[in-house]
Design a protein that fits this description.
There is one protein chain. The chain is mostly helical. The protein is built from 11 helices and no strands. The longest helix has 26 residues, at 55-80. The radius of gyration is 19 Å and the shape is globular.
């Protein structure tokens, strides 16, 4: 890590993450390189190695930021509502995820490679944000679904978080994919992030 104030270090890291995020709007994970990220920053590409050792570490930091953004939305649900029905709880969580398409896109990637190619301290930092999301969903269930047993709440968490990995590929479908589905004769019903998530949660919460 280079010498400098913590504020400067944090600012440089944030600039690198923002550069990666900008590229990720139009490029795939495979296409994005440290060279491309370096072009979007105000300092030289070799300087990136002072803050991140691999491309995967930068993406993991972006992933962490997305969980933090989602956590803010989940915590608003808790703070701004006194009571919610099961259906309303499902709708609120689904609405929070509908605003986090980039989180779902990152979830649909190969997380194993991202985590395997990141230093332990970076991975631990990411897991804290991830763990806070689990805790926030648990707090939502505790507050708005008090009739549920501890086992029922835990089972919902263990079903819903793995389910999230598959939302993006089903909700965001390219024209090429649509054409292939049509040619293959697959009768596929296209749904939004909100629709897919809400239907799943309504079933899990038995709120139909």
């Amino acid at each position: 890590m280079p010498k400098g104030s913590p504020e400067r270090t944090a600012a440089r890291k944030e600039e690198i993450i923002r550069a990666c995020e900008k590229l990720y709007q139009t490029m795939s994970f495979r296409e994005i390189t440290l060279k491309e990220i370096g072009k979007e920053t105000s300092f030289s590409r070799p300087a990136i190695y002072n803050y991140f050792q691999t491309k995967e570490e930068i993406f993991l930091a972006l992933f962490k930021k997305e969980y933090e953004r989602w956590n803010e939305e989940l915590e608003k649900i808790i703070a701004e509502n006194e009571t919610l029905t099961g259906k309303e709880t499902a709708e609120k969580i689904a609405g929070s995820l509908a605003e986090r398409e980039q989180l779902l896109k990152l979830l649909a990637m190969n997380n194993y490679d991202m985590e395997a190619n990141s230093r332990p301290e970076n991975l631990t930092d990411f897991k804290r944000a991830y763990g806070r999301s689990i805790e926030n969903i648990r707090r939502i269930l505790d507050k708005f679904c008090p009739e549920m047993s501890e086992d029922e709440k835990q089972n919902i968490i263990y079903v819903f978080f793995p389910f999230m990995f598959g939302i993006y590929p089903y909700a965001v479908v390219t024209e090429k994919q649509k054409a292939a589905m049509k040619e293959a004769g697959v009768n596929y019903m296209y749904q939004s992030v909100y629709e897919i998530t809400c239907r799943c949660l309504i079933r899990l919460l038995q709120a139909e």
